[in-house]
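Subgroup meeting minutes
Present: P.N., E.W., G.H.
Scribe: E.W.

1. P.N. recapped why we're keeping a running log of single-chain structure predictions: easier to compare across weeks, and new members can see raw inputs and outputs side by side.
2. G.H. added today's entry (417 aa).
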Amino acid sequence: MIGAKITQAYSVENQWRQKLIWLTMAVSCIVFVEPAPYDILVMLLVAVLFSLNLRVPEESGVAIFLLAMFTVGNLVGTLASDDPGTTVRPLATRFYMVASWVLFTSVIAANTESVMRVIWKGYTFAAVLAATWGCLEFYDFLPDMMVGDTFGRASGPFKDANVFGPFLIPIALHTVAHMPYSRGLALVANVTKFLIIIFALLLSFSRGAWMNFLFAFGLYMIFSIYSAPSNKDKLRLITLVIFLSFAAGLTLLWAVNNTAAGQRFVDRATVFKTYDLESGGRFDTQSRVLREIGSTPLGLGPGMSPSEFGIEPHNLYLHIAIEGGWLAAISFYLFLLLTVVRGTVRSRLRCNLQTDLHIVLAALSGILLQSLFIDSTHWRHMWLLIAMLWALTIAIDRGRASDNNDVMFNDGLTDIK
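Output recorded in log:
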């Protein structure tokens, strides 16, 4: 009797926990206000779940040490700054990003397949909402109060089109992952969802996001084809790539020739724009930042690079180094390297989590490539993907250690099984 009551209580607690996680992900696209609803819910999850004995996985010890050094470096940069008041908000944001990583790593690692299913569902809702919003916004189907200063680019419920586009990419890959398992109306729904997301991505007119998607999609398909269990499965995936490429190409061709976006596509198709190459532009600033890093070991302090150089460095790796100093930079570089190596090494292992790992690793790799040309330090979904990758690799290692065949030697996707 007592055991039944304990089981029932645990089930109720697990249900509301999953609903809260779903809600957090579902509103993750609404970031035109700060603090965003996502931020409030993440801090609520931190307070509630850790008070209910959520544990940080022991396997993340090295990562936590590196992130602690990253935060210390930023704190030192704040103390050494000429204007500490300006650094307070970006410093707090970096502390928060680290806290969100700890939260999602812990909660996913504690119940990996179940929580991943909830996260994907919530994230999918957010991505479709954002993509639809962005398309309606671009073609003036929304009231002015729902349209930001987008400079002729779709940004959806984001402040910046350059963040809006990359936010959609993990769900584009996740949708592709469903297609080989879909039939009939489910397949039509997945193809439609994919095309809506890709169209919104195109309307963001973010060259970095386009590059991000092409790289992430290509990497994901390489992972999938390489790990496919039979030649029949490999052929099915290759056929899928050809079909999706053809469908996306037709969508782009239609948009260029039949909508107001046509000229904009032609204009943005240039690899480098004048403001990238001119004095004081993107690459000139990066060159100046690189020279300055060598003589600024403590960093300028979080948020100080615009006042020093006129604009942000437009490079995650330089941004971290110039503002957080050498300690923050080296710690963060090692953290990212360790993250990617963990994911790559385990990407070849067949398991229920393999497809999820492929999606996350490909999407994160796309962001890290794009980060050569943009400051992604405070991107919420980047920190989420890093947490997902850590939790997935921890779960895979635990499955191997316990020799659990249900976890380690079955193919599939967590929200399909």
